[in-house]
Amino acid sequence: MTDISITIVAYNNESDVRKAVCSILEHTPSDISKKIYIVDNSTQPDSLEPFSEEHPEVIYDKTPENLGFGAGHNRVLPLLDSRFHAIVNPDILLTEDSFGILIRFLEETSAGMAVPRMVDAQGIPQKTCRRELTVLDLLIRHLPFGFRKRRAFHTMQDMDYDSPFPVPFAQGSFLVLRTQLFRELGGFDEHFFMYVEDVDFCRRLNAVSSLYYCPRTTVIHRWEKASHTDKALRREHLRSILFYFHKWGWKLW
Q1: pLDDT the model gives residue 2
Q2: In 44-147, where does DSSP find H-type helix?
């Protein structure tokens, strides 16, 4: 049994995946046993396979079609033999032993999943911890200005970010959880192709365990927010939002 398994779902972003994996290998010490699964949804040739062959800890899996985010991560569920599992986006970079720190945090607490402090490439903290999703907060998010207090409330700006605290949901770019819990939950709900599946997953996890913000480690997240500029991705985002509220009920505010 390994200490931690890690999945990265790729989609035509070979350079980002290489950088993410290399940062994991560089900053995770050898005494933490690990397997890194690259699940490749790409439409481009299998250019990541030769890269994976250079690293014994990396396992490459080319999907027959683009399965989406959640189904891509779920693809490794039958293969997992680890104490902890990590969901990692290709646009993540480690600068320290974040996995070791988060593993110790989970071992010391009763939390089922932990999310680190995340910053952009300039070191500016990102607002990745959120309160429960509501229709009002979604509408406000797409407005260019106003509702400053409500935005701050939704992104938990009233919390002490120097100390751990429970989180209703965290943006799913970097999550570390107990593998058995990931297995018991059946992974992500594959009705979501991409977007909002992390909100749904955190909600289901919090129903049986707990998600905590852990400020003991920081990772870099080069957040692209592609759905803000791509019409097809905006439509997919909207479809996921509608499915989420259909599943959980329409909480207005």
Answers
A1: 98
A2: 48-53, 69-74, 98-108, 135-141
CA of 155: how far to CAs of 30, 161, 201, in Å?
A: 36, 12, 18
Please give the pLDDT value at position 253.
Answer: 86
pLDDT for the residue numbered 231: 81
Print the SS3 string covering 127-191: CCEECCCCHHHHHHHCCCCCCHHHHHHHCCCCCCCCCCEECCEECCCEEEEEHHHHHHCCCCCCC
Which tens digit of pLDDT belongs to each residue from 120-152? Answer: 999 999 999 999 999 999 889 878 788 999 999
- The answer to whether the CB of 209 falls within 8 A of the CB of 132 is no
pLDDT of residue 25: 98
Pick the CATH number of 2-133+159-225 from 3.30.1360.200, 3.40.50.1110, 3.90.550.10, 3.40.50.620: 3.90.550.10
Q: Where are the chain's structural domains?
A: 2-133+159-225
